[in-house]
Amino acid sequence: MDHDVNELRDVAGVLNESLALLKGEEKRLSEHRASQEWNRDDSAGSPGQTVIGLGEMTSGLQGKLDSLARYAGFAALGLEKQAEGERRRLRLEPRCVPSGTNRMARPLGESTVRALQLLRELDTFFADGFAARIDKALAAPRATYPPADWEAYRKEARNELERPGVA
Asked: Are 60 and 96 in contact (CB under 8 A)?
């Protein structure tokens, strides 16, 4: 197996604990949302966008846990071709983590912050700069998605792609 079983166990533990924290926060906010008559504000940082951001992050972490299990299973069964493909997918950072925070109201909830701090431990396991992206998300003063001005948002995205060192 390309990865030491202890490393996979540690990664799974962090993913599982972070996922539980985010699911708890998502459930708490969804129940709070259902108990109140929230308006239909879909702006960045609104209650609805915050729940969407949490949902995106829980989905991404669940996907990583599923991928880890598939990788371990394929490797244990000697299915090397399948294991290698799953290993490549596993090493990519979780979909929507930490970018789901771009939708979320500030200050971020305690469980969300704790989950992101735990995930920082996986910086060397996932794509380069994972911890830096988490730090940026934690330091962001406000939600930024969806943007109030889509044209300015698209322009900024184009400028990001044109900067040296951005693929």
From this structure: yes
CA-based torsion, 25, 26, 29, 35: positive or negative = negative
pLDDT, mean of each 10-residue run, the chain (167 residues): 80 98 92 62 88 95 96 95 95 92 95 98 91 96 90 85 67
Residues in the chain: 167
For residue 127, is it within any domain?
yes
Q: How far is 138 from 102, CA to CA, in rounded Å?
A: 10
Residue 167 included in any domain = no
Q: Is the pTM of this model over 0.70?
A: yes
Residue type, 23: K
Segments forming the whole domain that contains residue 62: 5-162
